[in-house]
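ARCHIVE RECORD
Type: protein–small molecule complex
Small molecule: iron/sulfur cluster
Source of inputs: curated submission
Record status: active
Notes field left blank by submitter.
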Amino acid sequence: MSKVYNWQLGRDMRFTFPESHPQWQFAFVFNINRCIGCQTCTMACKSTWTFSEGQEQMWWNNVETKPFGGYPQHWDAKLLAMLEQRNPGGQTWDPQEGKGHEAPFGQFRGKTVFEAAEGQLGPDGPLEAIGYNPTEAEWNGPNIFEDHAKDTARGAGQAVLPEHKIWYFYLARLCNHCTYPACLASCPRQAIYKRPEDGIVLIDQSRCRGYQRCVDACPYKKAHYRENTGTSEKCIGCYPRIEGKDPELSPNGEPVETRCMTSCPGRIRLQGLVRIDEDGKWVHDPQNPLYFLIRERKVALPLYPQFGTEPNGFYIPPRWVPRPYLEQMFGPGVKEAIDQYTCPDRELLAVLQLFRVTQQILFRYEIVKGPKVGEAPVRMPDGSTKTQELYNDTVIGYNKFDREAIRVTVMEPVVEREPGTYANSI
Ligand code: SF4
Ligand code: SF4
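STRUCTURE (tokenized, with ligand):
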């Protein structure tokens, strides 16, 4: 066991291997406020990678309706219950302890999946991470409870911000290509590895013997067993696209986003690569859109950071959902994130325009200031009023080679066709 630093927990934690980090890390931000639950992402992934025999229950990308839906069923409720059982009443945060750039959410005082396994034996010796292997029934019905709402005020039927009494939201998920992957830590064959060039976590199919320890240990349940090959499989981060190897999409070797990201009609997704130094710290790079949203503004939060794997999937939390539920899911940064998103300042509003405007991975953005085009009062979650100022700024995104990949304005341009020129002109 080694000691590693987990910035999402604001402290050191125990992990199977010593610190060892990639140069770049695959990461993504999903804006839950915009997801329409269309499952286009799910099908884009399925039709690319998991359409073969033995992969029927394998959904590397899925979209579940919270709070009741889940794939496999109740995966998160089960994990939270297991951790609570190991550490009754102790799964808490101290949001102020050591708070700073390397501990933006204060300090987690509870036990991670690794720490909760301490002193326990598994089938292959000391247990690396607590977990469980979902039953066949739990892997059925990836869409179970879709669009089912929770009614926290029976019959009242209120739908008024800041929190709706009847609510649900769509949670799109894939492997988080974690910094400290529980799947990797638990594999007795050392068949799982994290790529040094982009942090993508892969299972070496030639080494895997199907012991399924990764399925047990991944707290997000994103490793899957395939019976007809006797091996486990997981999301591969569409690595040929990240490498810029698709001859049609990347004629000059530009890295492009994954299939699930680029297919999203809700425009909720932005994926990228962030630079990591040898200690595992994110290299200060506020002009990288992901760095800006995650580390600079903290408007996008990790999913269940308390599990301890340091996931690299981040979410802008939904505005209408009761805060205790969101804080359990995303940690103590929820209020600050929703406050910013409710009334974004000029720069944040510009960067939010970059979601799904190009397939190329954006490594840098620049903003060209435009005229003020309006202002409007905004009711904040605490009931106060702020003024939303609207500037028609232009945001420019640059690719890996620092070439312009996209240029987009805050105001969507309106183009009027000349009457009489086209058959459908008004
Ligand atoms: S989400 Fe699960 S499968 Fe993916 S890297 Fe993390 S622990 Fe491994
Ligand atoms: S494609 Fe986008 S909008 Fe549709 S379900 Fe997936 S994440 Fe949500």
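CURATOR ANNOTATION: The mean pLDDT is 95.
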